[in-house]
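Amino Acid Chain and Its Fold in Token Form
===========================================
What this section holds: a protein sequence and its matching fold, both as plain text.
Structure line: whole-number tokens from a learned vocabulary of local backbone shapes, matched to residues.
Purpose: to set a sequence beside its fold so the mapping can be learned.
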Amino acid sequence: MSRSPYNWGRTSQRRLATCTPNIQRLMTAALHHPDCPHDMSITSGHRTHEEQAALYAKGRTAPGPKVTNAKPGQSRHNSYPSEAVDIVPYVDGSLSWDWDHINPCAAHIKRVAAELGIDIEWGGDWRMRDGAHWQEPKE
């Protein structure tokens, strides 16, 4: 089987290395799969409690829209290794938060997860949709 022309950049590799082995295996398999619809970047793997607090403050005590409902210690990103990863399509030279790019990537990642037998949850399926977020289900 041929593989896609896509590879993780250094920053994405560093962020992905902070995640669980199953997340690393899934996301790398998805990116290298010949049917991968877009290049992708890892925008977050493990987050410290301080980083989580800064994200939680957005739209509350800091400027900007709300980006998470998870307080420090409540996010799957706060475990080490991280049980969550954020992935964004990289289209035409920049990150794309457009659902027209996110949805095909999500469908692709779900297919690859099923092929590999890896259980994964997508934040795009939640009420407060988070198209970049992927996490291992709680046991």
About this structure: Residues 1-46+81-139 form one domain. The helical segments are 10-16, 21-32, 49-57, 99-116.
